[in-house]
Write a structure and sequence with these properties.
The protein is mainly alpha-helical. The chain contains eleven helices and no strands.
């Protein structure tokens, strides 16, 4: 315990309490994004916050009766949800060289391809949407699963970019870098594990339940992440509570 000049033990409990209170105030004041982005040492914290913020975007749409209660009538609504999720998750990871690249639709589409292991053109064509029943009576299960796969895929791709920058600090993220990371993710068993888990675990009994969807999303991301770790991606080393 720190000692003051007179040799008496210094009381630190008040300081610890103040630190916790200050952090709480920062979060409450809407600075959580900045606070999390500053914690560059922890991929775990960023991944967790990516999931939470992605779910917030998803659930706000639910609250306004656009997802999943009203069916999509085309690709526009699907792509709009994807863009919102991509931008909010990008903020969390704090990779400066990546942010300006998102203005390019080709770069955005790379992320979209990774989420579904399909080309962006295929994803946004009627054939793909009909397969998901986007032009028919859309079920809540199908919509929920699609959006959750977006959140999971984007989050895991960003973790790959995060470790790339950590391991190569002299480099910047380029469209070619993103393309390479996405291709590695698309070809990975981790992507297939994540996608399959959400496909089979989201159903009519839980797709309207925010807590249940969040739990399934977290488990799907961790399952995919675990497999990718075995395939060569750096394992998580820090757990932030």
């Amino acid at each position: 315990m720190p000692q003051p000049e007179d040799g008496e033990p210094m009381e630190t409990s008040g300081v610890d309490s103040l630190v916790k209170e200050t952090r709480g105030m920062l979060l409450a004041d809407g600075l959580k994004l900045l606070w999390t982005a500053a914690q560059c040492h922890s991929a775990d914290m960023k991944l967790k916050e990516s999931i939470n913020l992605g779910m917030n975007v998803f659930w706000k749409a639910v609250g306004t009766s656009s997802i999943p209660f009203i069916p999509f009538v085309g690709a526009t609504a699907l792509y709009s949800a994807f863009i919102k999720i991509l931008k909010i998750i990008n903020t969390i990871w704090g990779i400066p060289s990546c942010t300006p690249l998102l203005h390019d639709s080709k770069v955005r589409n790379l992320f979209l391809q990774g989420c579904f292991d399909a080309s962006a053109g295929d994803i946004l064509t009627s054939k793909f949407l009909v397969a998901l029943n986007f032009f028919g009576p859309l079920t809540a299960t199908q919509t929920s699963t699609t959006i959750l796969k977006m959140i999971a895929g984007i989050s895991l791709i960003y973790e790959k970019l995060f470790w790339y920058i950590k391991n190569h600090p002299e480099r910047v993220v380029s469209p070619a870098t993103i393309g390479r990371m996405v291709m590695e993710f698309r070809r990975s068993q981790g992507q297939r594990t994540m996608s399959a888990r959400l496909t089979y675990r989201i159903n009519i009994t839980n797709c309207y339940d925010k807590a249940a969807c969040l739990a399934e999303l977290e488990e799907a991301v961790e399952a995919g992440r675990s497999v990718m770790g075995k395939e060569g991606m750096r394992r998580k080393t820090i757990v932030d509570k």
